[in-house]
Design brief:
single chain; alpha/beta; Rossmann fold; Aspartate Aminotransferase, domain 1; 2 domains
């Protein structure tokens, strides 16, 4: 059988979202998953839109020894070394080596200038439509904003697309709630290097584990496109608490035999361990 490799998103997939108001207690499946992966010696990679500093400050994540951690929506890869993690320079070089002819190369300063007029817009109540440049949300391969008017998302995505038409970049969007107001629905809009995505993590795993069965688990819009529906070695787990856009993409795109869609009452790590066992034990 092909040996499995597990790739999991963190927030709301493996562990509870870090900004929720109630105490963060992991699901029972979190402990079962750690034990199962160790028992069967399954390589395990994590992927997140957040920074490595955030990952290493979270006790629910430092409890796990990952074979690699992809951060900031696939713009960085960190590998274990000497009890910690070191950046994988080859991965970043691979990202930056890609450039589509006829377009301006990805340059975050250029992107910030191009979209500044949109970012500075206010809504009809005089409130900012975007909030940007917060924390580690801007690097040389990524720039992102919280968009506070999800109802106007198609309109503003069209504006962004037109302004960025000649720049070699990729726009990613996922739905969620604000870090500043947990009851406020928002969209997270990321403008990324064109090769940077959750899929870039799977590409790296393919180079390190040829012919392995790559099993990806996710919950939201920035997980869309992580797996290739035409790759016979790709599998996907949709947790029960997944956003509708991600769930619908999987239903519309991924073959039935390559997907595990958890029922809505099977959330986070409970769904991940169930999906991993489903795919692993089928192959066995």
């Amino acid at each position: 059988m092909s040996h499995p490799v597990l790739i999991t998103d963190f927030d709301s997939t493996l562990v509870p979202w870090c900004f929720q108001s109630k105490p963060r207690e992991p699901r029972v499946g979190y402990y079962q998953l750690i034990d199962y992966v160790q028992t069967h010696q399954i390589p395990w990679y994590g992927t997140t839109g957040r920074s490595i500093e955030w990952v290493l400050s979270d006790p629910l994540l430092t409890n796990i020894r990952f074979d690699g951690i992809s951060c900031k929506v696939g713009t960085e890869l960190w590998l274990p070394q000497d009890g910690g993690y070191k950046p994988c320079q080859k991965f970043v070089a691979w990202l930056k080596s890609h450039h589509r002819p006829g377009l301006h190369p990805y340059n975050v300063d250029h992107i910030k200038q191009v979209v500044e007029s949109i970012v500075n817009e206010l809504d009809e109540n005089g409130q900012p439509i975007f909030v940007g440049d917060s924390g580690n949300y801007c690097t040389d391969l990524l720039h992102g904003w919280e968009f506070h008017r999800p109802d106007k998302l198609p309109e503003y995505l069209e504006k962004l697309s037109k302004k960025l038409d000649l720049i070699d970049c990729r726009i990613s969007c996922s739905l969620g709630t604000s870090h500043y107001d947990l009851k406020k629905p928002i969209a997270i809009i990321d403008i990324l290097h064109p090769r940077a995505s959750k899929a870039s993590t799977l590409h790296y795993c393919e180079t390190q584990h040829p012919d392995a069965l790559l099993i990806f688990a996710g919950d939201s819009g920035n997980d869309i496109g992580a797996v290739d529906p035409n790759n016979p070695n790709h599998r996907i787990i949709v947790v029960g608490n997944a956003h509708d856009d991600f769930r619908q993409w999987v239903l519309d795109t991924i073959p039935k035999q390559a997907r595990f869609i958890a029922p809505t009452n099977m959330e986070e790590a409970d769904a991940v361990i169930a999906g991993l066992k489903h795919f692993h034990e089928i192959k066995r």
